[in-house]
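FAQ: What does a multi-protein file look like?

Like this. Sequence, then tokens, then the next protein.
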Amino acid sequence: MNDLLGSWEQCGVDAFIILTAHGHDPHQEALSTLRTRRARIFTVDIFALDFTGYLEDPGGPTHGGELDTSLMLHLAPELVRMDLAQDYPLTERQVARYRRQAAGSVPALSPGSVGRPTLASAEKGARLYKMIRDRIATRVLGAVAA
């Protein structure tokens, strides 16, 4: 990514906003190594935002759950197979373990997701997308303008 940022910076880009939806520590650490000569770099982990009030299960895991699925139903509904969606709620102990090992795969008995994807909808995804975009616009783009 440093090569891309450097090339774009040479073409006149003076600020970069890198969006990620991956809270795994090594991933976050890798993003912290991005460097430019003069351009400013902002990295935003969108899943670090507070989704309380936007989700029916805001504290639940996100891998293929309500949050992920709602966003995908809004952004690329043709890629979502809601007819195959199955809820896979975790116990409190499993949630703690799953969050600690964010890079790990989903539990072996999971249908491929963790959480409650059946709560997802395109309308909810549109509201989530707008909230994410608005937060980035006010917090990050406001900092870029300053």
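And here is the next protein:
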Amino acid sequence: MTGIMTLFISSAIVFSLAFLGLMLFLGLWTYKDAQVKTDQSPVLWVLVVLLVPNFLGLVVYMLVGRTNKQAQAPGAYKKPMLAFAALTVVTFFVFIGSAIGFAFQGGGDWAASGYQRGVMIDAFGNARRGTFFGMSTSHRNNEWRVSVVRGNGTIQISPRLDEAQIAQLRVAGEAGGGEIFLRIEQDGRMEEFHVTDFDGTLDLTGFSPGRIRMTLELEHASDVRIAVSWSVG
């Protein structure tokens, strides 16, 4: 797991917990405050403050609900409420920043990535070169899946295949536009296949068991869906 992904997940968890803590102490503060500052039901104002979105309920309570101007506010739960409010704001900005960084870095199998340029290698061993938008990749269970909204460049992995897997290497590819090619290389031998709107088994006669380099080449392609599998049985 990359550092930006760890920050993204951690900040999301902390933000969620901080927001729940803020709502809890905001409700408690409103209840105690309304017992003194208004003649209406404190429970009613707690519901207004917590259920009206975007903290508009709190604004309404502060402007309209606190009718007993002379009564001194108890101030109960004020300090923890403000502490959770500050933590919520800080973690919110950290979460947004890490989400943007995560999108630009690429999410691997987690989600479609945003805009990518240059060379990078993700957790699944995909080496990418070029420009991609909306990419998601996975390499697991003897299958390599790639999804790209728009792309122009190459994506590469080097799995280790046995003789049976080489004989049953299958590709299912489709694209809304552009062209997709799959290049297979091993020890100086190279075969290239046009896999746009293709679904079938590749003829890899002459390739030996061992590590094989697979390179997907997208030429101004859009709405790409590729599945390369080497399962046997």
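Q: Is there any per-entry metadata?
A: Some entries carry free-text notes. For the entry above: Residues 39 and 67 are 8 Å apart (CA to CA).
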